[in-house]
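[agent] plan:
  1. take the single chain provided in the ticket
  2. run structure prediction with default settings
  3. attach structure tokens to the ticket
  4. add a short note for the reviewer (M.T.)
[agent] executing step 1
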Amino acid sequence: MKGHPMSTDLATDRFHHASCRQQCRRDWLGVLVFLALGLVPLSPTLAQNRLDQIRNSGILRWGADQEGGGPYVYPSPENPNKLVGFEVDIANELANRLGVEPAYVQGQWDKLPDLLNRGDIDIVLNGYEWNPSRSERFGLSIPYYVYQLQLLVRDDDDRIESFESLKSKNSSVRYRVGVLGGSAAHDYLANELGDQIDIIQFEGASEVMRGVELGLDGLDANLQDLPVWNFYRSGYPRLRPAGPPIGPGFYVVMTRKEDRELLKAINEAILQMLSDGTLRRILSTYGLWDTTQAMRGLGVNPDGSFVGGMLSSEDIEATSSSTEVFHSARGWTVVQQRGLLLARAAGMTVLLAVCAMPLAIAVGMIMAVSRLMGPTWLRFLVQTYIELVRGTPLVLQLYVIFFLLPELGFSIHAFWAGVLGLAINYSAYEAEIYRAGIQAIPKGQSEAAMALGMSRFLTLRRVILPQATKLVIPPVTNDFIALFKDTAVCSVITVVELSKEYSIHARSTGAIVELGLLTAILYLAMSYPLSLLASYLERRMAGGAR
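[agent] step 2 finished; step 3 output follows
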């Protein structure tokens, strides 16, 4: 065979096969290296120092939740487009002393640590209290504020005069005390009173105070952070403090555990603010400075993380008559001030829905056809997908996409994570709607079309799907309207849509009814045209059929 043309081709083929195997090995090695870099966090020696990254970018991203309201972070009563609050002022000072500009990042309060771990923010500065468990997982600065807790009751309720009154010796009396979920007040009640009372958790500080004032669900009292009560007390005239404040506790700045240099720089900045009077000036502006602030402990461990404790826990005299900053707006005034902001947030709601629904319809249609006409293994996979998506809540799906995928090296922007989550969730329902529409078409039409020489795909495209689409218009329209309202769930992944914007301004102004009506009108304005469009399409298709 030597010299035969095939021998040269064979040698060439072997050479190419060997080259391909080597190339494949290199490609797989590259893939493994990429996955390793994506899945395994960089060690401190390889990763760039977070403080250097901040200084190189010139921006300090700090996370907080406006929904918590004053005196922490809230829209200015004079200019709702501007954020004010003592933590806003502190964040500005910290950024200034680091030589960078502050950049506020909105996040749901209980999800801020997740945003920190994702790398979306550099620090959390939003009334997060020091506790040993949190100290093990994050870097915690020396306290920028020493807070206390205040028990609040209705002014006509003389059963509870202090915190000790909750410890009822009568087993038939069981007080119901409301708290902000996940707060230090909740932990304090659980540790001090255990199962002697019923602890009712709320998502907002203003809701629980209003709930006690109105006696909702049998609420007897509220254990509230003293700064919140001092700020909002004029808005709740039927509440009174029961006994002296209790505590104290510490508000700290949170960093990732590995960001030691950033934490030390934050500590140095807070110390400077204490020593030159800046911190006292900021806190005094909001009526928060008292003798407790001068008695804070400043001990840190070798990593620079605050270790807790005060210089003295005796004879702490708290000034409970702090300046009241809250001014409640009502009527057309608040609607004129905040209406444009709600309208902008409605635009975000529309954008989420308009981007998600077509994707959900397309995926749902493919799923329906695959389940009806695909091979057995494909039908099984599609049915599993549909049942899994329909059987789990949307909020969990969003949480997986936004918070857990980055653990696998896939980080998605909050907006597109919201679009993807909504599309995935609704695609399962659209698949069932289209499956029902296709099955409603008489089988004889498919058989007749195929008898005329049409392929199965052509029959589906020209005969079955057009008729099925006409049948599914009403349920698909209903889903589209429901999707507008379900965009509210996207607030858990930091997307500020209409319902989140309403919650922020309703809590900061107390104008729950006025802004609620405006929000309802905006939702109606978004959904009602869809109903009209669906009716028009139904009439037009019915006319075409005739």
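[agent] step 4 note for reviewer: The longest strand covers residues 145-154.
[agent] ticket updated
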